[in-house]
Each structure stands twice: as C-alpha cells, then as structure tokens.
Amino acid sequence: MAQTAKKKAVVLLSGGLDSATTLAIAQNEGFECYAMTFRYGQRHQVEIHSACRVATALGVREHRIVDIDLASFGGSALTDPSLNVPKERPNLTDGIPITYVPARNTVFLSYALAWAEVLGAFDIFIGVNAMDYSGYPDCRAEYIAAFEKMANLATAAAVEGKGKYQIHTPIIRMTKGQIIQAGTRLGLDYSLTHSCYDPDLQGRACGRCDSCQLRLKGFAEAGLTDPVEYVKK
Q: What SS3 state is found at 173?
C-alpha cells in the first residue's frame, strides 16, 4: 500500500529557542517542513548560523535564507547600530522596547505565505509567544488571527477553494520554561540555538538583554542548564 504523502508546512526559523521548538513541534505533528530564515539587516549573523544548524539537525525538506533590508528603514536597536540594545530591564512587559522591528512578523509571514502558495502548502508555523515575551504587538493571538483571515482573502489558492490557510502558533500560550520542556521532550538540542540580541564578537550571549533574561529564566523554570555560552560577568 502506498504511503500517504505528508502535509507540507512552511516554518519560520530564526535560529532562536522559540522558532527551533516550533519546528520540532511541527515535525512531531507529522508535517514535511520547509524552513524559512531571513537575513533582514540584523546587526549580527549569529542567529543565521544557528538557524542553519537547527535546520540541518532536524532534517527539514528545504531551508531558504531570504535577503531583505529592514535596516534601511531603521527604527530598531536590532538593525540600527546607533541605538543601544536595552539591558537588565526590570519589567520586560513595560511598553514596547526599542528592539521591536517595525512590521517584522507581517513581512516574514507574507514571504512564508508566498512560498506556501507555490509549494501547495496551507500550513504556516511561527514561534510567537505572548506569555514570556518583550511586549511586541505582532506576537499576540489577535494579530495572528487577523493575518490568517487576510491570507485566505489575498491568495489565489484560497479564493479558488484549493485549501484554507492556517497560521499555527503552538507555543503562544506557553511560558519559556514550558517551551524548553516541550523541546527537550522532542530531543531538541538547544546548544544549536541562539537568542541574544547583542552577542559579543565571539558570538557569546550577553546574558543581560531581554531575550537572554527570558531564556535564562526559562531554563531555570525547566530545571535545566542553558547549554549556550555567555559572556562572563
């Protein structure tokens, strides 16, 4: 008897903890995964290398690295070297920080939607989280629901009735500790990932930016040791 072909899914993969866990979950749910990573003008390339390592380790069907230039607009400490990455903020949900990249997830999801339509895939995975996060507006469930509605209005495949697009957010309601526990159960090697907004020249995590603080908090909650290297204080 012929095997039933796996459903295809496009997975946004940044190289960070959340997106790597999301990819592992998508694979565990039986999807044939096509990973998409962006070189969008971020100030360091460490996360790109991490995304490549994760994609290789998890054996995705294809991994695309797409070049776009969000840095040309500025407005974020992740793309503009004249802006400092905030460190040791006491309340990480107090306002939208300068590390927010304007419209980033909207741009990323649009590219993922375009590739999905070409692939004949109707499932897109993104590792947004609305529990332990820095208050970014494009990580909220209502934003994802709005994009999903738009995707089904804007594409030929959906309008012609070939399928209905679904934006999957499997970790959106998890704490960082729960995310790490989920990935660990699936055998994900977190030493392959990178989360720091401001690594040093050797690629070591600063341990003080929002992303590092959330990551370290998550590993502590999970009762595990973070395997990545941090700058020694």
A: coil
pTM: 0.95
What value does the CA radius of gyration of the chain take, rounded to a whole number of Å? 17
The domain containing residue 80 runs over which residues?
A: 8-222
At residue 1, does pLDDT exceed 90?
no
Start-to-end CA span in the chain (Å): 60
- Give the CA dihedral 129, 133, 136, 142, nearest 10 degrees: 30
Residue 36 CA to residue 23 CA, distance in Å, equals 11
What tokens were used for 93?
A: 């949900």
Edge to edge, the sheet with strand 32-39 lists 62-67, 32-39, 8-12, 123-125, 166-168
Distance between CA atoms of residues 18 and 128, nearest Å:
7
Domain assignment present for 230: no
Q: How many helices and strands in the chain, by DSSP H and E?
A: 7, 5
Average pLDDT over residues 10-30: 98
Q: What is the token pair recorded at 133?
A: 């996060």
CATH code of the domain in which 186 resides = 3.40.50.620
